[in-house]
Amino acid sequence: MMGLPLAFTEPLLLIGLVSLPVLWWLLRVMPPRPRRIEFPPTRLLFDIAPREETPSRTPWWLTALRLLAAALVIFAAAGPIWNPQTGLAGSKAPLMIMFDDGWSAASHWDVRVRAADELIANADNDRRAIALVPLSEPNRDITLMPAGAARVALRQLAPKAYSIDRVDTLAAIDRFLKATGDCEIAWLSDGVDTGRGEEFVTGLGKTVGERSLTIFEGGTSSPLALVAAENAAARMTVKVLRTDSGIAIGTVRALDQKASPIGEARFSFGPQDKETDAAFDLPVELRNDITRLEISGERSAGAVQLLDKRWRRRAIGIVSGATSETAQPLLAPTFYLTRALAPFADVRLADKGSPQQGITQFLDQKLPMIILADVGTIAPELRERLNAWIDQGGVLVRFAGPRLAQAEDDLVPVKLRKGGRTLGGSLTWEKPQHLATFAADGPFAGVMVPRDVTVSRQVLAEPDAVLATKSWASLEDGTPLVTGEHRGKGLVSLFHVSADMRWSDLPMSGTFVEMLRRVVDMSGYTSKPGAGVASEATTETVAPLHILDGFGAFGSPPATAKPLPADYRDRATSDHPPGFYGPAEGPLAVNTLASADRIAALNTASLRARHATYTNAEPQDLRGWLLSTALALFLIDAIIVAVLGGGIAALLRRRAAPAMIVLGIVLGLLFASLVPAPSRADDATDDFAMRATAQTRLAYVVTGNADVDSIVKAGLNGLTLFLAQRTALEAGDPVGVDPARDELAFFPLIYWPIVPGAPKPPQDAINKIDAYMKQGGTVLFDTRDAIEAPPGANGAAQTPAMQTLRQILSSLDVPELEPVPREHVLTKTFYLLRDFPGRFVTGQTWVETLPRDEDEDSAQRPARGGDGVSPIIITSNDLAGAWAVRPDGQAMLPVTGGDTRQREFAYRAGANIVMYTLTGNYKADQVHAPALIERLGQ
Predict the structure, then answer these.
(1) Contact at 8 Å (CB) between 579 and 546?
(2) Which tens digit of pLDDT belongs to each residue from 764-798?
(3) At 278, phi and psi to the nearest 5?
(4) Which of these, 474, 414, 479, lies nearest to 444 by C-alpha position?
(5) For residue 498, which of 512, 479, 517, 477 has the smallest C-alpha distance?
(6) Radius of gyration of the chain from Cα atoms?
(7) 806 Rama class: left (phi>0) / alpha (psi -120 to 50) / beta
(8) Closest CA to 490 of 531, 529, 543, 532
(9) What is the model's pLDDT at position 734?
(10) In sequence order, what E strands does 256-399 have?
(11) SS3 sequence, 233-249?
(12) Which residue, of 56, 292, 651, 729, is most buried by count of CB atoms within 10 Å of its CB?
């Protein structure tokens, strides 16, 4: 209603508001009843000055007060609901729910799941079938299913870590709608257009046709994303993107390879800004250690930017053989190289001395890349060190010049002719040459070729069979400009022109900067090696190492993740999800968004649809508050009328004390009517009984510790979902109980987490637990302290939680206990298990020692397990902690064991316990089925 989360169950009653003007007129023409005064003789009238006067007409403010009270009554009669449920109701057609499940939906995934739950619940009430359509899966078969199956399928959905292409799903939606006919459609949109959004909206409008369509969007903040991280000379920057407007601030965190924090950077958006920058002012050594940037509080893969060696600022050493370094420093090769490399690398110039000393200096510093500008002869022993350095991964880049043109050197990728080649001038017919277009498969692919750059001199390579394969860039006449080849793990490259302006004007162009940037990238991780290098060996591929999920958390690579080329630079896809690929010592980072990607708000205005917003709060009925307020206004009106009519004054003159008492009582009742009485949700009311018996539910004892209770509730929710996915049991939501006040007989299993130092329950609660156990119920006590147990045979009994449990059990009629035997029914009720792990694996699980056939005192055992089920189970492995899941379906707490399947086994242990309590000795009889069949055969 008018943009507010407000709805009415009977909106037609709001027509009564039009009667308020008539009521205003009636109240104005009907003044309060005049006060009657006994007149004395007429001559005395002039001496009478009345102390109180009664107005002839009703004051306007009193009329407004009455109209407000009447309006509140009308509003209350219309049934106002704050934060109404977003579900669709009133139709018998099937319901199709479309999900935006890309990275942009992850930050508010629980809100979308809750909205889908409401839609499914309303459809279930109308006995309608439901189809779930995640828009990231165009090949998924769209089928109708009942509400129970839809809830299970909904819990299995999770946001993807990459941008989805909604258009690919239109074909499957069209086939489903044609086969189904009439259908109601709900689209849970994330409101973000990551590409082809307009095309999808247009196609959806044609596909839906005249069918009912409701789009859920808004009500949540815009998702944030990170792109274009750059490690500049002074600081590292990263762009933060959004789709909405308004002033906003946030923080970007920088983490190293071990997920340890390195620094934080603040960012802020202006009222209309769609992108902004966050900058890290850190030393270059710390910035080079950053492997992950993430937005604090934003749980999505798009809010994470992974960095690999390509983002490190490489330390590059420059050695020049020219003599103009000191005479004309602004014309020297080192000047042009330093200016070109400074934006993306840390440039180090060799100390003054011979080139041999400079090369030795950088080799001792173990720099990843060295540039030699017109360095001719290199000593044999130094050449051996350079070759060894290149074999280990070093990158050597050389520039031509007069000295190199006259030298014989094998530290170049191709064999050179002596003397070089001069283009232009008075003694040659040849004109200066322009650059040819860069090869599409070379390291300079995509770099713009400037038409104003010419080359007037170059060193030529000797023609041979492999020259073309080693050429990375050429002139228009086909002679090489840049050549290169791999040697071992390293690279050798040669620019066939000088690094200054003597041989060409290439060093003055932006192309020179970009070419050097591409070569520098190779010093950290082999990028596109060029046509020649690619032909020498097959393209290297790297396998997935650590993959991000939709929420931005690292996990194991899924089965659908495929290896990718080692020079991969694009955004993540379904085949190549974001994460790290390749060896752990030098992985390749793949991000959700590419550097040039931007996001925008999705425009759905062209669709003929009803729009709804996501709600983050429970629906609240406002009728009680409105009626209470209206009653208070009517009481205030009565008091005002009494004051204006003189009734209060007369009462006070005659009986002052009783009048004050009556007035105090009236005001007290008025205050009490405005303060709502506290609800007692834990009373054993009929509503509690109906809710507990409508569905099979698991229960847990409310300890009063908010953290423990929230984890236990989330754990039982996770176990309930696991049971719905793996078994035929579709249990309801778990219920927290207070043994002292709630009826326990409704629940087959009660989970009791033990809080160390908690006070012992009252005896009434102990008696109810005792009766519950004797009547067939099972209580699972979990001390959650297996990891805290001191070493030794009796260590588990010495923990604070176990001492608290002993105090509770001291007043219970507990049977004799034993660790779960290997042949116990509990180990095979559903899964075949050897132990019962939770978050911990070192604790034992204890059950009742069932009587053997030869035990004559079996009848005397207390609390015999009803129907063959142990009334008590004790563990210290923190089962609920292993089961606990957040609303988005992710695990809430880590497990401590080394087995990656420990959480799965914890769920299986929970399934066995629940099936054990529900099936009783039925499973025990099944264990003996082979013996019974054999006996029948005899």
Answers:
(1) yes
(2) 888 889 888 888 899 999 999 888 876 555 555 67
(3) -115, 135
(4) 474
(5) 512
(6) 40
(7) alpha
(8) 529
(9) 92
(10) 261-269, 275-280, 292-295, 304-306, 314-320, 345-349, 369-373, 395-399
(11) CCCEEEEEECCCCCCEE
(12) 292
pLDDT score for 925: 57
C-alpha to C-alpha distance for 893 and 902, rounded to whole angstroms: 13
Helix (H, G, I), strand (E, B) or coil at 614: coil
CB 255 within 8 A of CB 291: yes
Cα dihedral across residues 874, 880, 881, 882: positive or negative: positive
| 3-class secondary structure, 873 | strand
Query: Could you tell me whether strands 544-548 and 579-581 are parallel, antiparallel, or unpaired per DSSP bridges?
Result: antiparallel
Give the list of residues 6+ apart from residue 625 with CB closer than 8 angstroms, or none: none
Contact status, residue 308 vs residue 588, Cβ threshold 8 Å: yes
Q: Are 497 and 461 in contact (CB under 8 A)?
A: no
Segment 718-737, tens digit of pLDDT: 999 999 889 988 888 899 99
What is the three-class DSSP state of 345?
strand
| Amino acid letter, residue 485 | E
Q: What percent of the chain is predicted at pLDDT more than 90?
A: 36
Query: Are 410 and 462 spatial neighbours (Cβ–Cβ below 8 Å)?
Result: no
Written in H, E and C, the secondary structure of 557-588 is: CCCCCCCEECCCCCCCCCCCCCEEECCCCCCE
How many angstroms separate the CA atoms of 650 and 652, rounded? 5
**Nearest to residue 346, comparing CAs of 397, 404, 283, 391?**
283
State how far the Cα of 307 lies from the Cα of 550, in Å rounded to an integer: 18
Question: Cα separation of 242 and 598, whole Å?
Answer: 9
Mean pLDDT of 614-635: 75
pTM over 0.70: no
* Spatial separation of the C-alpha atoms in residues 691 and 31, rounded to whole Å: 54
CA dihedral (683, 685, 691, 692) positive or negative: positive
DSSP state of 363: H
Residues in CB range of 259: below 8 A, 6 or more apart: 292
Number of H-type helices and E-type strands within the chain: 26, 41
CA–CA gap between residue 201 and residue 185 (Å, rounded): 14
Place of tokens 């004309």: 328
35 by DSSP, 3-state: which?
coil
Q: What six digits make up the tokens of 602?
A: 């999705």
CA–CA dist 313, 344 (Å, integer): 6
Which residue type, as a one-letter code, is found at position 420? G
The pLDDT score that the predictor gives to residue 650 is: 58
CA distances from 463 to 414, 468, 491 (A): 9, 9, 21
**321 band by pLDDT with thresholds 50, 70 and 90:** confident
Q: Answer for the pair 451, 353: CB distance below 8 angstroms, yes or no.
A: no
Residue 473: how many other CB atoms lie within 10 Å = 25
Q: Of 735, 750, 741, whose CA–CA distance to 690 is shortest?
A: 735
What the block records as the tokens of 786 is 């297996």
* Strand (E) or helix (H) holding 22: helix 20-29
Residue in 811, 789, 795, 798 with CA at minimum distance from that of residue 878 = 789
- Euclidean distance between CA atoms 292 and 260, whole angstroms: 10
* Residue 751 confidence (pLDDT) above 60: yes
Q: State mean pLDDT over 522-546.
A: 57
Residue type, 36: R
Cβ neighbours of residue 910 closer than 8 Å, sequence gap 6 or more: 719, 722, 723, 879, 883
**Amino acid of residue 822:** R
What is residue 70's predicted lDDT score, i.e. its pLDDT?
84
Residues 6+ apart with CB under 8 A from 675: none
Q: Which helix (H) or strand (E) holds 457?
A: strand 457-458
Q: What burial letters (b/e) apply to 570-582, b meaning 16+ CB within 10 Å?
A: ebbebebbbbbbb
Distance (Å) of CA 458 to CA 188, 359, 480, 504: 63, 24, 9, 9
